[in-house]
Amino acid sequence: MNRIASGLLATIVAAIVVFAQASPASAARTRAKIGLFNCTLAPSIGLIIGSRQRMDCRFESKTGAVDRYSGTISRLGLDLGFTAGGRMLWAVSARTKGVQPGGLAGTFVGASGNIALGLGVGANALVGGSDRSLTLQPLSVSGQAGVNLALGVAGLELRFLN
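Above: the chain sequence. Below: its structure as tokens.
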């Protein structure tokens, strides 16, 4: 990656970390890590001011229970280029010690950033669930291939499949 792309990526990741730590939901209450959320992302095309990308996901709670979800992540902001898909892993935190089956279904919002020139990376820090009681914080950035630059606000809509 060249210097400009590296600097842009560092700025994106820093903004996401600051957003995740400064969000009212995370600042106001103590949260406990309740599991991992692993998603496979479908290919996408940036439409200049936004995009939509399908995903298939698995939530594995600390107790070992596994829930399956399908979802769509939408971005509003700068989004140029295309990606061939990828993977994303989030840590799931909650104000409670766990969630019921299907408890992650619903809407999440937050900050999003992706950059790819050949191989690329991205991260999305999201808050949602009932009364914004859940947070999805990136543990590993998404591995994706393509030519893409995206930075903006993300919305994630999850549907329970089990």
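The chain is about 15% helix and 65% strand.
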